[in-house]
From TrEMBL, chain A:
Keywords of this entry: Molybdenum cofactor biosynthesis
Enzyme class: transferase
Name the UniProt record assigns to this protein: Molybdopterin synthase catalytic subunit
Pfam families, alphabetized: MoaE
Taxonomy of the source species: Bacteria, Pseudomonadati, Bacteroidota, Flavobacteriia, Flavobacteriales
Stated family: Belongs to the MoaE family.
Source species of the chain: Pseudotamlana haliotis
Pathway: Cofactor biosynthesis; molybdopterin biosynthesis
Superkingdom in the source lineage: Bacteria
TrEMBL record, chain B:
Gene source species: Pseudotamlana haliotis
InterPro entries: Beta-grasp_dom_sf, Mopterin_synth/thiamin_S_b, ThiS/MoaD-like
Pfam families: ThiS
Top-rank taxon: Bacteria
UniProt xrefs under CDD domains: Ubl_MoaD
Protein name: MoaD/ThiS family protein
Amino acid sequence: METKKPKNIFKYGAISSEFIGNSIYKHQTKTSIGAHNIFLGQVRADDIDRKIVAAIEYTAYEDMANQKFHEIREAAFEKFDLTCMHIYHSLGTVKAGEICLFVFVSSPRRKVVFEALEYIVEAIKADVPVFGKEIFEDETHQWKKNT
Amino acid sequence: MILTIKYFGQIAEITQKDEESLTFSGNLISELLDLLHSKYSGLKLKEFQVAQNQELVTLDTELSGAEIALLPPFAGG
């Protein structure tokens, strides 16, 4: 059964490949699933006026963000025939090249997971109050804005 | 009424605090923002949305909530 209460989807620091691999492994017992789809957001070493982004420091309005994640989750289950869905987002410092967002959807059939994943990731980018401070190699910073 | 105002990201850089309590007698979100703009002049240059009890609201929304948050542009993902 999928939980109906908002849960905390934030993890402190980068999301490790071990964690992601283990999540895939845990689904081997769910044999009604025929297709998984995974989105991994990675911190990009943007070059902004010759300054390179070394890391992003994430903060969030956590209560509202978890509520929004919950609404996105409920809407996705309503809209798509999903077996399960997991979202994890980093808080704190994530270095360039590390993973800051992990979205994992599973369904009996493949077409569903392609559509569902895009819907969920776009909703996260638009609706969830997470803030990102881009820290440059020279330790100055600017604030990231989703476009 | 007593309001808790929360500040995030670049907005918190301007207010120099993450949160404060204010006693306020106005009725609308816009009236509260007038007060905050006079208290923190740097806010005028910044883009932000307002949430009341964790829901986004507009300037003409009536103040009803105990918790108001000033949210700069989202950057999740």
